[in-house]
Amino acid sequence: MKPNIHPDYQVVAFHDTAADSYFIIGSTIKSSRTVEVDGKTYPYVPIDVSSDSHPFYTGKQKTVTTDGRVAQFNRRFKSLSSGKSEA
Q: Which residues make beta-bridge pairs with 40?
């Protein structure tokens, strides 16, 4: 690796504000704010969504009951394809 071209890698505290949980992860993101977590001080980065608050990961995701465009097409033109004879 070339010297002096890579960003500094450090341990950062990401705060999911929706679920009020912290993730301590290595990152190259820069932050002027700090927070103390478990007795240690880390750079602080607030985030809106993480695996703790996203509906897909929490099991609260709603399923859409409407068919997609392909299913609507197949249902609409199903009768036309059944009367075809193959050569």
A: 37
DSSP letter string, 62-81: PPP-S--HHHHHHHHTHHHH
Domain that holds residue 59: 10-81
pTM: 0.59
CA distance 83 to 87: 13
- The total number of structural domains in the chain stands at 1
Report pLDDT digits (tens) over 20-32: 889 999 999 999 9
Q: Report in angstroms the alpha-carbon separations of 12 from 17, 44, 48, 51, 57.
A: 15, 6, 16, 17, 22
Under 8 Å between Cβ of 20 and 13: no
